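Input/output pair, single chain:
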Amino acid sequence: MGYDESFEGYEFSDSFDRQFLFDLYGDDCSAAEDIFGSSLIQIQEELASIMEKAAIGDVEGIRKTFHKIKPLFGYMGLLSIQDYVQEFEDRCRQPASMEDIRIPFENIMEIMREAIARVRQEHQKLKDFNNRRA
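Output:
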């Protein structure tokens, strides 16, 4: 059975790994909505913390915080974002100052902004879908 049939009419947007999400949530769109919502909140809070760490040049703190949020992207089927975060983490493991990681940091933060926008939109779409079914 494919995800289209099992999600009972809900179809995740193209940027999300639909088969992975089907494997993870089955037909439980309410669980997906909850995970998307809680992950979105946590990611936004942690990104604020990352910006504070960047302001004081705490590269290791930035790396650890990205490591902490990396699995959240998996729970939302954004597996490619996990890969980008891992690459950035690896760069931060090398002896580095903020100046050394300035461009990769700007790039990963842009990726985060785009990912948050996609997650926010998908979360709203899930909420709307679940409300229509209630």
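Residues 97 and 112 are 21 Å apart (CA to CA). The first helix runs from residue 3 to 6.
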